[in-house]
Amino acid sequence: xFRNALGKTLRFLGYTVQYGCIxxxxxEYLGGIVVCSGPSMEPTIQNSDVVFSENLSRHFYCIRxxxxxxxxxxxxPKSNICKRVIGLEGDKVCTSNPSDFLKSHSYVPKGHVWxxxxxxxxxxxxxxxxxxxxxxxxxxxxxxxWPLNDxxxxxxxxxxxxFLDD
Length: 166
Fold this sequence. Notes:
166 residues
C-alpha cells in the first residue's frame, strides 16, 4: 500500500516536472499572451489590451524598425514595457521631443535599439533613458487578441515620420 502510494506520487512529480519544463520552454522561446498597461502605445494598443508576443524573432535577430516589442524596463528590471522600434544599431534617430524647436539627432550604438511609444506626449522611452540593449528584448508583438472588435494584426505607427533613412 505504502509502496503503491509512493510510486503514484513519484510518477505525478515526474509528470509535473516534465510538463513544467515544456511550458517554460514554450513561453521562453515560442511566445505567450501579454496584457499591456499604460497610455504610451495609444492609439495602437490601449490600456488593458491583450496581445500575443512571439519570442523567436529576438533569438534570430529578426527585429525590424516599426516592430512593437516587449522589453525589460531599463529603469525597473522587474517590469516589462511595450514600445515600438524606431532605430536599430547604426541608424540615425531623432532624439528630441516632437514639440522641440531644434531637433537633435544621434546614432544608435552597436547592440542597441531605439524605442519610442506611439503616444509621444505620454511615453517614457529612449528619449528619456537612451538606447536599449538588444538583450533586454523579450519578444515581438504579432497581433491583438482582446478586445475582440480590434482582433488582428497591429496597425502601422502614427509617427512614421520619425523613422529616418540615412
